[in-house]
Specification:
Blueprint (H helix, E strand, L loop, with lengths): L2 H8 L5 E2 L10 E6 L2 E6 L8 E3 L1 H13 L1
Antiparallel strand pairs: 1-2, 2-3, 3-4
Amino acid sequence: MSIFRAYKHLSNARWRKSRRSASNAHCVEVAVATGAIGVRDTKDRDGGTLVFTPAQWTSFTTSLKQG
């Protein structure tokens, strides 16, 4: 599935605040859709969304744990 098609699925996805977000104003939301994971700023939901494929997301989160 292309990232563009996956991004369209995020419009119907359920967004949740990340467990790793700080308790202050520095929060992100995460949504999981078929073939995509979206990440956006809680304070600026219309400001853009990062879209990852499941493989990219796994690589990204693995690198965070190692760093």
